[in-house]
Amino acid sequence: MSERGLRGPAAAPPYEVGTFVDGDTELAYEVHGTGDRVLVFLHGILLDANMNRRLAVDLAAAGNRVVLLDLPGHGRSAKPRQASAHRMDSYAGHVVALLDHLDIDRAVVGGVSLGANVGLMVAARAPERVQGLVVEMPVLEWAVPAAAVTFVPMLLAVHFARSAVRVAAQLVRRLPRSGIGPLDSVINSLANDPVETAAVLHGILAGPIAPTVAERRAMTMPALVIGHRVDRVHPFADAEQLSRRLPDATLVEATSVLELRFRPERLTGEISAFLDRAWAARRPRRRAG
Q1: Please, are residues 213 and 245 in contact by the beta-carbon 8 Å criterion?
Q2: Residue 166 and residue 267: Cα distance in Å, rounded?
Q3: Which end of the chain has fewer CB within 10 Å, C or N?
Q4: Measured in whole angstroms, how far is the alpha carbon of residue 258 from the centre of its chain?
Q5: CA distances (Å), 18 to each of 14, 77, 89, 220, in order?
Q6: Strand-pair partners of 172
Q7: Could you give the C-alpha distances from 261 to 56, 135, 164, 220, 287, in angstroms and in order?
Q8: Where are the beta strands (DSSP E) in the chain?
């Protein structure tokens, strides 16, 4: 189902808000802009569509249709409490289901951090649906030690200090939202029930994190890879190595994860130019049967 109607400038709610059911999971999405040039862009771990809304509005103004999906356990989507619902390959399947739901034959797919890895997984599992990739801060081989140091303690905390975390989450739910997308995304994350957070972390850590090196080398669609040198969970070496392994990739260095959220003009311009190039190589529609 969806609500339609143009609702004003960038700070207003999106042009289209909708939900659909894939399997037994209800998923929420929002659409900015119209047309055949579709970008599906995904959020980071435990965050939601709020973090990428400014990017979606800006790219829609440049003639693109941008779809932001809340993955299971995130944002307005259902929050399954089974770790098996949060495997990276399962998330990729939901992205393909979103394309089917919106009757989109092909899209440029990608996201930030977790979303970047899910985009890569979509390209590995359903390359015929992927016109191009926008991969911001992928979490690959060089990130493994820092990711373990960051997320394993979080998983232990939500398991063994559940009561305290639940009380804190209840307090956070009472906080007013700021209207600043990335900040609201963090607040929403802190408001999640610890059981739901534990399921997300457990599922992602237990399942495949990214396509294999061989699968990455087989991704022939154009790709834009964005990396930065600021934190160890998203080492620049991962972005640099990925750009070398993908057959048709361009590497862009960001100052930090904050650049695209708070000083977005340069990187939005890079993404917009990349989308022009990706859609200039448009392939024919799939044929049924």
Answers
A1: yes
A2: 37
A3: C
A4: 15
A5: 10, 10, 23, 32
A6: none
A7: 11, 15, 31, 29, 38
A8: 2-4, 16-22, 25-32, 38-42, 65-70, 107-112, 130-136, 223-227, 249-253
In 3D, which of 61, 122, 110 has the Cα closest to residue 252? Answer: 110
What would the mean pLDDT of 51-64 be, rounded to a whole number?
96
Tell me the domain boundaries of the chain: 2-280
Domain 2-280 fold is Rossmann fold (3.40.50)
pTM here is 0.88
For residue 285, the model assigns a pLDDT of: 53
Say whether 36 sits in a helix, a strand or coil.
coil
182 versus 152: the higher-pLDDT residue is: 182
d(CA 229, CA 70): 27
In a 3-state reduction of DSSP, which class is residue 286?
coil
Please state whether beta strands 130-136 and 107-112 pair in parallel, antiparallel, or not at all (unpaired). Answer: parallel
Q: Are strands 38-42 and 65-70 parallel, antiparallel or unpaired?
A: parallel
Euclidean distance between the first and the last CA atom of the chain, given in angstroms as a whole number = 27
Angle, helix 181-190 to helix 162-173, in steps of 10 degrees: 140
